[in-house]
Amino acid sequence: MNISRTWNTLKVDIAHHFATITINRPTKLNALNIELLGELKELLVEMTKDESFAIKGLLITGEGEKAFIAGADIAEMSDMNPSDAYTFGQLGQQVTTLIETLQVPVIACVNGFALGGGCEIAMSCDYIYATNNAVFGQPEVKLGLIPGFGGTQRLAKLVGRNHAKEMIYTGRNVPVSEALAMGLVLKSFATKEQMIEEATKSLKLITTNSSFAVSIAKKVMNEGIDLTISEGLQLEKRQFSAIFSSEDMREGTRAFVEKRIPTFKGK
Fold this sequence. Notes:
Layout: E1 10-15, E2 18-23, H1 34-49, E3 57-62, E4 67-69, H2 74-77, H3 82-101, E5 106-110, E6 113-115, H4 117-123, E7 127-131, E8 135-137, H5 151-159, H6 161-170, E9 174-175, H7 176-182, E10 187-189, H8 192-206, H9 211-224, H10 229-242, H11 247-257
């Protein structure tokens, strides 16, 4: 994968098998325009396709202190017709789906504003860490719009129907304390540096386990969210039995019996 190429709207850093994607339009509060979404999609597709690009975890954050992503680029959207908007919404949904289905764990590290598309990008990650100045919201109705990158679907699954409807109908900003209470945010931190440090620690802890097992657990949990409990249990049972053919399962169980640290291969 060619991560050394020049990205106009992203910064990409790789260290110790972890990748950090920084949304990089600070003069526009990292607002999502077509170019940014296109670059993000290209990068995520490459991460999905390139098996040699063996990252074990991903952090997504925003450049600067003011905003993770302040929303979609309204100036760009203002001239769109319905056909343009369909293409734009489709691109946004493709990006959030790629994040959601990436095999490795993804942590959103939210600093400042995460509004509209920014909130939707964060929700597509496995979980959200935030700084104490973080602000969440889906303010689209204030512009005569609705969320278009998955907000009407993911928010209710994360915080419940009532919280989600109230947030979307009012379009109000939600401070991090309230986002924590409703379960949108997992943890909050005093500074961005502390947040990134703790997110990295979380990924390091995850990587002591079988990356193959983690990827299967992620797949089952993501697919099971829309199933009945009976259907979900059937899905879990199929994947639970299938994983017994994996090298990691054999290594993990043998290491436990032999009282040693396992050496997982991710397969």
